[in-house]
């Protein structure tokens, strides 16, 4: 069976130019004793926006691993697919993030719901998870509510998994289930019964991405109480450990943190807890590579700086259109966005510092960073010019990409000095 390593990172590379710099960060971590499996991921939405194909991601991953003589496992993720979008990803992918968010809340057949409840009756009244001090009190009404909310989604996950399996063959790909892009977080109790449902569907689940409490906005830090998150995260780790034994799930099943890029306020908690319990982690960093490309071009000055200033200017004009698809995962205070005229006067350092995620820098503007994060579509409209600038300024851009992944993410999460 294709198995994901204990630690893995989802490397989003929207324009397919930074695989080399991304992999260098993974290789450097390996030299420091932290083995991380790289997973290049790109969603259907991003492919449509940019005009690429899933096979392009496979080509990039195969090329950069060959060029850097990287002989360890790596994967290509069909990111956030569902029953309507999975087909085009099957040939080139060996990791599938099955997104069930749109199915949550839809009710399964009444008979299926009752059959599920019968299989979990032994957990009713009191559910004791090893490692969690207090048992969870489970009422009949709570069980019914969980079944009505999640069973249909689990069955759809099974349907999608079997569609992939029929083509790829059993054991030839990694399966992740994501349910993070929903308004409300799943509780540890809900996660336990969801894992039961997925086990019943015989999905060889290797990672699961729940919705956590707090805000996981794109490209900026965690908004919420880090200590509350830590308590919730640790409970979920215990739930997964127990569910593996109870439901026959794969031994290497681990937590996946989506939109986890730049959640610096919780990295130390995640790092401490996976070390404490000897657990793995999958972290997705999608979108931040595009931001580092913009930062690198800004630092390069001249026509490259002019290009990214124009992207920002146009993003102000098209802000509603750009933000709409990401409404649940961005939070922009428009009154804090600098005007076109102000930005037109900025030098390279000021522009780069405004969107580079260094909170101690007085110029850093998380609102501007989030807007640029969703504005990649505007670069796609001028792809030839954009690619020429990336190639011309490759050294500066690659340095930004590498330092972001290695220093700000890997070193923070795994406490590499």
How are the elements arranged and paired?
Blueprint: E1 7-12, H1 19-31, E2 36-43, H2 44-50, H3 54-67, E3 75-81, E4 95-99, H4 110-119, E5 125-127, E6 136-138, H5 140-168, E7 174-178, H6 188-200, E8 205-209, H7 226-247, E9 254-257, H8 264-276, E10 281-284, H9 288-300, H10 302-317, H11 319-323, H12 340-344, H13 348-355, H14 366-373, H15 376-380, H16 383-392, H17 394-414
Parallel strand pairs: 1-2, 1-10, 2-3, 3-4, 4-7, 7-8, 8-9, 9-10
Antiparallel strand pairs: 5-6
Molecular structure report:
Helix 8 links the parallel strand 9 and strand 10. With 417 residues, the protein is an alpha/beta fold. The longest helix is centred in the middle third of the chain and has 29 residues. Helix 7 runs parallel beside helix 8. The chain contains 17 helices and ten strands. The chain is 51% helix and 12% strand. The chain folds into two domains: 280 residues, TIM Barrel (Alpha-Beta Barrel), CATH 3.20.20.70; 110 residues, no CATH class. Strands 1-2-3-4-7-8-9-10 form an eight-stranded parallel beta barrel, surrounded by six helices.
């Amino acid at each position: 069976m294709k198995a994901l390593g204990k630690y893995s990172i989802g490397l989003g590379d929207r324009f397919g130019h930074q695989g080399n710099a991304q992999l260098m960060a993974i290789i450097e971590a390996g030299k420091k004793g932290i083995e991380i499996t790289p997973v290049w991921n790109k969603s259907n939405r991003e492919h449509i926006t940019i005009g690429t194909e899933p096979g392009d991601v496979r080509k990039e991953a195969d090329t950069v691993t060959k060029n850097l003589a990287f002989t360890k496992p790596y994967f290509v993720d069909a990111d956030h697919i569902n029953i309507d979008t999975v087909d085009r990803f099957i040939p080139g992918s060996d990791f599938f993030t099955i997104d069930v968010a749109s199915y949550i809340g839809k009710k399964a057949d009444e008979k299926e719901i009752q059959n599920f409840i019968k299989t979990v009756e032994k957990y009713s009244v009191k559910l004791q998870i090893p490692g969690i001090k207090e048992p969870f009190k489970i009422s009949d009404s709570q069980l019914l509510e969980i079944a009505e909310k999640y069973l249909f989604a689990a069955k759809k996950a099974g349907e999608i998994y079997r569609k992939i399996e029929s083509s790829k063959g059993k054991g030839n790909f990694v399966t992740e289930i994501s349910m993070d892009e929903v308004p409300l977080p799943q509780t540890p109790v809900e996660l336990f019964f969801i894992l039961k449902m997925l086990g019943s569907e015989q999905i060889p689940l290797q990672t699961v991405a729940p919705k956590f409490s707090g805000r996981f906005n794109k490209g900026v830090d965690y908004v919420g109480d880090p200590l509350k998150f830590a308590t919730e995260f640790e409970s979920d780790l215990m739930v997964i450990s127990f569910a593996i034994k109870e439901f026959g799930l794969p031994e290497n099943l681990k937590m996946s943190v989506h939109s986890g890029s730049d959640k610096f306020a919780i990295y130390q908690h995640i790092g401490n807890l996976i070390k404490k319990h000897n657990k793995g982690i999958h972290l997705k960093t999608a979108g931040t590579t595009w931001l580092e490309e913009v930062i690198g071009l800004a630092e390069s000055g001249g026509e490259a700086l002019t290009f990214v200033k124009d992207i920002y200017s146009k993003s102000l004009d098209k802000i509603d259109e750009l933000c709409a698809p990401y409404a649940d995962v961005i939070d922009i205070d428009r009154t804090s966005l600098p005007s076109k005229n102000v930005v037109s006067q900025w030098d390279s350092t000021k522009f780069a510092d405004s969107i580079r995620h260094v909170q101690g820098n007085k110029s850093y503007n998380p609102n501007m960073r989030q807007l640029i994060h969703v504005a990649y579509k505007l670069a796609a409209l001028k792809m030839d010019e954009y690619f020429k600038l990336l190639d011309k300024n490759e050294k500066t851009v690659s340095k930004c990409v590498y330092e972001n992944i290695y220093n700000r993410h890997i070193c923070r999460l795994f406490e590499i000095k």
